[in-house]
Design goal:
Blueprint (H helix, E strand, L loop, with lengths): L1 E9 L10 E10 L2 E10 L8 H7 L3 H4 L5 H12 L3 E4 L2 H14 L9 E3 H8 L7 H7 L12 H15 L11 H4 L21 H12 L10
Parallel strand pairs: 1-4, 4-5
Antiparallel strand pairs: 1-2, 2-3
Length: 223
Amino acid sequence: MREIVLDTETTGLDPLAGHRIVEVGCIELFNTVATGKTFHAYFNPEMIMPAGAQDIHGLTDEFLSDKPLFADRVEELLAFIGDAQLVIHNAQFDIGFLNAELDRVGRPKLVNAYVDTVSVARRKFPGQRVSLDALCERFSIDNSSRTKHGALLDSELLAEVYLELNGGRQRDLGLAPEVAVVSLLPAADATVRPARPHAASAAELAAHAEFLKKLKDPVWLAA
């Protein structure tokens, strides 16, 4: 199954208050294994970056000033997502922002099925912390490079967390899709060896009888 792990960075918490997306990071999975295909883009939000948001992701007005508008890359983003199931940590937040941006450019809202890994983690670990950092710690996933939030890095970490939430690498031994599925049927040109005879020879029967004489009080003769 094709899935897209997705994360966004924004100028704030509420798209209805005019806050905008400034970064999108996506990673393609096939049967929960990363294929190596990604989508990553920074966007000019056409507004001043609030200090609180900048403290979270580190994206400044100067850095974003020459980046494309969301409208400039929306078609590329939608083509990458396609009809895949989305995997998002706190999905309502990211989907709400994406739908607000799509509405601004006259595109329909996303209708993709999605998995909210926050909800999955809460069901799996009730009462425990389920932030991305907490789940990385729980599953011994190295997140030492996550000094600031970043959409692509967070998607990479979430892809690993999602794999662990689904049972870990034993599901397919961590193999890439092209080698993860092995046919159990013999190849058409395989040489089929005839079955070996199972009947014991006279010598084997005689040796077995001698061996039985050496046993004392065998269990099959017990009353």
